[in-house]
Amino acid sequence: MQLSDFNFDLPDELIARYPLDTRSASRLLHLDQQGQYHDCHFTDIFDLLDAGDLLILNDTKVMKARLKGKRATGGAVEVLVERMQDKFIAHCHIKASNSPKAGAELFIGDDEVKVTVQGRHENLFIVEFSQPILDVLDQYGALPIPPYFNREAEAIDTERYQTVFNDPTKLASVAAPTASLHFDQDLLEKLTAKGIQKSFVTLHVGAGTFLPVRTTDIQNHIMHSEWCDVPEQTVELIRQTKARGNKVITVGTTATRAIESAAQAHGGTLAAWTGDTQIFIYPGYDFKVVDRLITNFHLPESTLLMLVSALSNRDNILQAYHHAVEAKYRFFSYGDAMLVDKIKP
């Protein structure tokens, strides 16, 4: 299967660079089991889900992971904390005029925080902070909003680039689980009152989610690694949901990858699991758990578009995307949403 099979034309003006005034005011394109699409509003999710269904949400929180600083010589640098190893050591992306070598010292703020480069791990730098990393991020960091926003993070992003149900103890992502951004507290309460359950997984989203696929044959692509946790409580709720004939709906590709990784780790049978996942879901993948997916519109030729295409099929997805472009749906992180049903065999 070729990378070009997942290409489509997207006008720049359809990229949503700011959120709507209200989280749940987005549009929703429903792609059903027969591959037919239907124009809806996101609040119609209330009628599209049944009592007894189960929503799986990613409760990670986005760090203010982007730091601006300088070298000892004065040259500008940017440090993006990808993953914390402990209180002081992290794996980071570093942008600089020249790649820093082991032993190089960088400075954040008014030279108050020293960052020492220890070495490399694959495409990341291993660095040691002179102060606790989370304290440094809180004082000097900026939210790492997606590159296609083509702007710096602003005050509105502080609230709107986080989910309303994020767990403050799980502050470790460098990108939001954006399908969840459509849910406000009022809508969640209405869904609960209808009898629609929710449960949580954690997947700390890495900057690799924005990396392009660089192989012509997608099967040669190597996915980035992300840490996730699927707790026993969520697994048990999924078992109960399946047993009574209801649907499991993952909210976002991150929740989908977490759940399917847990099943894959146990030979196809879902069980509680914690670990690093590099699962790559593309057409031909046999979903073990997920019945339906709530997701945003994704970039051309992205692994996220491939995942969505695996749940329905590539032709259905591309036809729906063509319609979304013509109907001027808003794309990407602050854009509109889809409800994709697993296609009937």
TrEMBL record:
GO biological process, one term: tRNA queuosine(34) biosynthetic process
Top-level EC class: transferase
Protein's pathway: tRNA modification; tRNA-queuosine biosynthesis
Catalytic activity, EC: 2.4.99.17
Subcellular location as annotated: Cytoplasm
Xref: Gene3D superfamilies: QueA-like
GO molecular function: S-adenosylmethionine:tRNA ribosyltransferase-isomerase activity
Keyword annotations: Cytoplasm, Isomerase, Queuosine biosynthesis, S-adenosyl-L-methionine, Transferase
Catalytic reaction(s) noted: 7-aminomethyl-7-carbaguanosine(34) in tRNA + S-adenosyl-L-methionine = epoxyqueuosine(34) in tRNA + adenine + L-methionine + 2 H(+)
Top-level taxon of origin: Bacteria
A Pfam family per the record: Queuosine_synth
Cited HAMAP family: QueA
Assembly with partners or alone: Monomer.
Family: Belongs to the QueA family.
Function field: Transfers and isomerizes the ribose moiety from AdoMet to the 7-aminomethyl group of 7-deazaguanine (preQ1-tRNA) to give epoxyqueuosine (oQ-tRNA).
Protein name in the entry: S-adenosylmethionine:tRNA ribosyltransferase-isomerase
